[in-house]
Write a structure and sequence with these properties.
Length: 109
Amino acid sequence: MGNKLTGKRFQMDVGVLKTELDFESDNTMTFKVLEGGALQTKGYSERVETTIAEIRPQVYMVAWKEVSGATVTHVEDHENEIVYSNATLPDGSFYTMTGTIRPISDHNQ
């Protein structure tokens, strides 16, 4: 295991978007939209290839590109349960969001 996120699931809430993040391996994650606002359809799910860098213990930068062409970069502070999210959508619009990230479970429980 290359990072401590692998095998864990989290719920992210940035107000306009709530998702479940399932870190399946060191470089793959599936996200599921729980509430999408205007950004994404509720229930939408996608498996993406991720790049994950540990900034310090319990703080990670996680980045991916979606099939739509959208790009997303998070700074996830798991110690303080804060997420900073930046997303660029295919139409060029850019979103900077801050919210919470909380553990749901891990696959080993």
